[in-house]
Amino acid sequence: DFLRTTIQQWPDQSWCGEMQNRWLRTSVFGKSGQFDGPHAPLDMNQPVTITF
Question: So what's the pLDDT on residue 21?
Fold first, then answer.
């Protein structure tokens, strides 16, 4: 089974009211498809743990 996790950031985050350099969403990819977590503004240097 293949499983990959990501943390996504976009150059222009005005669509959600956030500033540049803020992480927004975690995603898990596997054979069942992609599942996105809720949007959560975090500093780009803040450690993140993804639990599944």
Answer: 63
Q: Does residue 48 lie in a domain region?
A: no
Asked if residue 14 belongs to a domain, the reply is yes
Spell out the SS3 assignment of 1-52.
CCEEEEEECCCCCHHHCCCCCEECEEEEEECCEEEECCCCCEECCCCCCCCC
For residues 12-24, b (16+ Cβ closer than 10 Å) or e, as one string?
Answer: ebeeeebeeebbb
Looking up tokens 């500093």 gives 43
Q: What is the pTM of this model?
A: 0.45
**Which domain range does residue 18 map to?**
3-43
